From TrEMBL:
GO terms for molecular function: diaminopimelate epimerase activity. Belongs to the diaminopimelate epimerase family. It comes from Winogradskyella immobilis. Its EC number is 5.1.1.7. Its main location: cytoplasm. Keywords: Amino-acid biosynthesis, Cytoplasm, Isomerase, Lysine biosynthesis. It catalyses: (2S,6S)-2,6-diaminopimelate = meso-2,6-diaminopimelate. It comes from the Bacteria. The active site is at C74, C198. Substrate binds at N13, N65, G75, N76, N170, E188, R189, G199, T200. This is Diaminopimelate epimerase. The record marks H138, E188 as: Could be important to modulate the pK values of the two catalytic cysteine residues.
């Protein structure tokens, strides 16, 4: 038996995407998902995404980290699956879909996919870092030398340590480039390594930078190892609404694998 798949990337955060409208893909097969995501023995990806039918929205997104486990929201994955839905002819330039954190709206403008993220009402502002949930949990910490930092080592220590422990958190290291631009490197839980970019991660960084007074801007540019993303938001006394994650999402190749 073979499985048809598509490989997508959004600022270097890469995914195997499968059209599962037939519901034939076995979601419980962690070994298969891990193998498909393996960079040496499989296709290679940070995660695997299934596109499924939905009763009221254009489609449903089901996301698995490279460790084979279903996880919380993936922002870059949400942008890539929107581009995939357009490729399949399910949507044209606007889409609605349901993910694990609720309903999302997305818009395609040329090469860019804009994804509305869930509202954020709570940001924990600690002495050394901030913590918030933008669909996935994110630790945000400013560092002085982002380029030289060992993100895998330091990220893994924070991800596994108190207070995150087994459930874990994604970990974002940040430097300020200007009042509207920040550099970000992210250690992703479930990949257990640095990824080239993380959509919920840069969203968390933009909100955290605003919340901690590093910026007063409402559009932030985030430079990641995989390229540039933008985040727009509306701040209020109750938190942040109308949060949009904006960046490119591209199909890389298509194939069939034995499974
Ligand atoms: N790469 C994603 C985040 C994916 C989920 C994360 N690894 C987790 O388990 O929390 C993104 O672009 O947001």
């Amino acid at each position: 038996m073979t499985q048809t798949f598509y490989k997508y990337q959004g600022t270097g955060n890469d995914f195997v995407i499968i059209d599962n409208r037939s519901l034939k893909f076995n979601k419980a097969n962690i070994t298969l998902i891990t193998k498909l995501c393996d960079r040496r023995f499989g296709i290679g990806a940070d995660g695997l995404i299934l596109l499924e039918n939905h009763d009221t929205a254009d489609f449903k997104m089901v996301y698995f980290n490279a460790d084979g486990k279903e996880s919380s929201m993936c922002g870059n994955g949400g942008r890539c699956i929107t581009a995939f839905a357009k490729f399949l002819g399910i949507v044209s330039n606007t889409a609605t879909f349901e993910a694990i954190d609720g309903m999302h709206i997305a818009e395609i403008e040329g090469d860019l996919v804009k994804l509305q993220m869930k509202d954020v009402s709570t940001i924990e502002n600690h002495q050394t870092h901030l913590f918030l949930d933008t669909g996935s949990p994110h630790h945000v910490q400013m560092v002085s030398d982002l380029e030289a930092l060992d993100v895998k080592h330091n990220g893994s220590t924070i991800r596994h340590g108190h207070p995150y422990n087994e459930a874990g958190s994604n970990v974002n290291f940040v430097n300020k480039i200007s009042d509207t631009e920040f550099g970000v490197r992210t250690y992703e839980r479930g990949v257990e390594d640095e990824t080239f970019s993380c959509g919920t991660g840069v969203t968390a960084v933009a909100l955290a930078m605003h919340n901690s007074g590093q910026t007063t801007a409402e559009t932030i540019t985030l430079q990641t190892p995989g390229g540039e993303l933008k985040v727009n938001y509306l701040p209020s006394e109750n938190g942040y609404t109308s949060i949009w994650l904006i960046g490119p999402a591209k199909q890389v190749f298509k194939g069939d694998v034995p499974c």
